[in-house]
């Protein structure tokens, strides 16, 4: 008996079968959605089924038209970085562009899909191919929610998600003249997010459930850095102590018009009061060549090169740090405020003026003039507010910068806005785990 007991003790332990978290049956790429989904206990608590999910269950596909340098793309880049830090699996899809490598550097899967042509027109010729590519990505990456930010990529992504019964949400960065079909796609999303109160107020359907989540700013990345002042000024050929004005925006349509008026305002100020004034312009667009031609004419007339066309750049924080006044709108205005810069808000819809505690609310509600404004901009208004900042005492300018930065840290910090977004994702996932029956 003793020997048998010893033999049993020497037996190799039985290995427990390891179960993976992968589903036994995955979606078929060309699967069709069920005709009808009947939900049970939608209004009542179902205590027999407790929700079982965590951050690791959140697998998000972010969709962009193209990886261009702009406010929407920078917003998505910041979101993706913070979501990855929180353990969320994020996949990004879009047409190749200048920010493609920045997304790839985050370590998340990046898929290049030609949603638009080189002329930035919807790629209707390849619609079925694009939808098939998206469905393969959703299936391969185990996506649990599709996050749409733009059109026309959003149209393709919505169709792919619907065919695989994957919930989708839509962030509205601006209120475009949507077609009826496009707005129906937005309205039928599992969640709709707006980046400013003015977009919410202008939505054609008032009873639509909408979440308000502002752009989040990384206040470590965007901060005033005095140490780079002299080197960057030397690189640009700007004398020490010379006032520097900065404008950032896509050089297309109304924002190109704003740029032209800022150039004219700076030309007049240089002739009247500030002979060593310099202007930095960042951004590109369909009217870039026209702006360049205008600058060449002004430089020839004034016999001085004081306007610096910097094109698209990811190193915005450095340029914010050397400017005395920033003019712009939207996310760029938030970034400049985070860098302690005085900001004159001017956007597509009109003029807000010098941002200060007295108009913080109206600046936020109008998205710094980009989504709404009570008055139009003009060269004279731009000149007046630029002059007002340049004439500020040094101490007042410093205090204005501190107050501006505190606003961003308290109201637009990217960790706070990412938490809000993760709550939206969690609610979508919670609803997806509800009990249903397919007929």
UniProtKB/TrEMBL annotation:
<feature type="domain" description="Glycosyltransferase subfamily 4-like N-terminal">
    <location>
        <begin position="69"/>
        <end position="219"/>
    </location>
</feature>
<dbReference type="InterPro" id="IPR001296">
    <property type="entry name" value="Glyco_trans_1"/>
</dbReference>
<protein>
    <submittedName>
        <fullName>Glycosyltransferase</fullName>
    </submittedName>
</protein>
<dbReference type="Pfam" id="PF00534">
    <property type="entry name" value="Glycos_transf_1"/>
</dbReference>
<dbReference type="InterPro" id="IPR028098">
    <property type="entry name" value="Glyco_trans_4-like_N"/>
</dbReference>
<keyword id="KW-0808">Transferase</keyword>
<dbReference type="GO" id="GO:0016757">
    <property type="term" value="F:glycosyltransferase activity"/>
</dbReference>
<feature type="domain" description="Glycosyl transferase family 1">
    <location>
        <begin position="231"/>
        <end position="365"/>
    </location>
</feature>
<dbReference type="InterPro" id="IPR050194">
    <property type="entry name" value="Glycosyltransferase_grp1"/>
</dbReference>
<dbReference type="Pfam" id="PF13439">
    <property type="entry name" value="Glyco_transf_4"/>
</dbReference>
């Amino acid at each position: 008996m003793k020997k048998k007991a010893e033999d049993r003790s020497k037996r190799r332990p039985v290995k427990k079968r390891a179960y993976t978290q992968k589903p036994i049956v995955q979606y078929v790429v060309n699967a069709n959605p069920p005709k009808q989904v009947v939900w049970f206990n939608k209004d009542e608590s179902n205590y027999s089924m407790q929700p079982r999910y965590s951050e690791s269950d959140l697998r998000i596909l972010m969709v962009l038209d193209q990886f261009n340098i702009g406010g929407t793309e920078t917003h998505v880049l910041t979101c993706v970085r913070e979501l990855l830090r929180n353990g969320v699996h994020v996949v990004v899809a879009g047409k190749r562009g200048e920010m493609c490598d920045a997304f790839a550097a985050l370590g998340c899967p990046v898929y290049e899909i030609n949603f638009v042509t080189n002329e930035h027109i919807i790629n209707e010729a390849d619609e079925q191919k694009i939808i098939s590519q998206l469905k393969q990505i959703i299936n391969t990456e185990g996506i649990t929610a599709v996050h749409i930010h733009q059109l026309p990529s959003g149209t393709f992504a919505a169709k792919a998600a619907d065919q695989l019964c994957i919930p989708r949400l839509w962030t509205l960065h601006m209120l475009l003249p949507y077609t009826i079909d496009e707005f129906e796609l937005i309205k039928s999303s599992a969640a709709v997010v707006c980046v400013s109160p003015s977009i919410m107020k202008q939505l054609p359907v008032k009873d639509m459930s909408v979440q308000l989540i502002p752009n989040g700013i990384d206040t470590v990345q965007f901060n005033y850095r005095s140490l780079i002042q002299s080197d960057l000024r030397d690189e640009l050929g700007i004398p020490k102590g010379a006032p520097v004005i900065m404008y950032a925006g896509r050089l297309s349509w109304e924002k190109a018009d704003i740029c032209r008026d800022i150039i004219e305002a700076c030309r007049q100020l240089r002739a009247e009061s500030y002979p060593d004034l310099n202007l930095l312009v960042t951004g590109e667009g369909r009217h870039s060549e026209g702006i360049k031609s205008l600058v060449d004419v002004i430089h020839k007339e004034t016999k001085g090169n004081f306007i610096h066309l910097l094109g698209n750049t990811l190193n915005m924080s450095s340029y914010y740090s050397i400017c005395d006044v920033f003019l712009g709108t939207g996310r760029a205005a938030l970034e400049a405020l985070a860098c302690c810069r005085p900001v004159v808000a001017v956007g597509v819809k009109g003029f807000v003026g010098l941002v200060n505690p007295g108009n913080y609310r109206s600046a936020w509600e109008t998205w710094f003039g980009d989504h709404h404004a009570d008055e139009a901009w003009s060269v004279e208004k731009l000149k007046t507010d630029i002059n007002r900042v340049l004439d500020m005492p040094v101490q007042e300018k410093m205090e204005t910068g501190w107050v501006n930065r505190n606003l961003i840290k308290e109201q637009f910090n990217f960790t706070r806005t990412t938490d809000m977004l993760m709550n939206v994702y969690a609610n979508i996932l919670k609803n997806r785990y509800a009990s249903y029956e397919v007929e």
